[in-house]
Amino acid sequence: MYDSAFAYYQRSLEKNMLAKSQLGIGLCYIHLGHIYELKNEYDKAEREYLMAYNILSDISDTWHWLNSTLAIARIMLLKNDSVESIRYIRIADKAAKAIQSPKHLAEVYNLLHEYNIKRGNYATALSNYKKSQQFQDSIQNMQKYNKVIDVRQNYESDKNMQYISGLNLRNEMVARQKRTIIYASGISLILLVFLLIALFLFLYGAYQEQQNTQGHV
Question: How far apart, in whole angstroms, are the C-alpha atoms of residue 143 and residue 8?
Fold first, then answer.
């Protein structure tokens, strides 16, 4: 599983390098680092995350750069390097607050929670955990709100579509009625013409017969 994923991101990294996409390269390094992290190869994971950190810091993409920053902080915690872990946590905390990102702030406080657990600061760790949960709740509430908005927009869209369909159906019915009236009128006119011709022939025949009768007298 890891081998196929690693090969995929290696190929993607090569393509992004050819395309000179700094964002794409940085993201590939993050994914490769995550694979090493899952395999408990923390030194290799740290190397990949640092590559991503340095590249993404040059393109002013704070969102993705924060992902690499938090990843480094997480690896440092796993390696029990408290000095470097808190350094990167503080860097991430400042940046996450600057862009007001609940997602990244939730991760920051979760890492602070783990950091303080390792340091034996349980009261502070509990406070960090509560803040992390608050941001997680904020994200979930935002997702629920967005879902409600999407449902409402879909409902309004469906109403509009139904209204338009109703208009189209009514217009089609009116057009069909017009065609029926025109067709019926045409048939009636043809029948009237035939009746007039028949009446003319009948009257003409009666007139001829009357003339013949008078001629014999």
Answer: 31
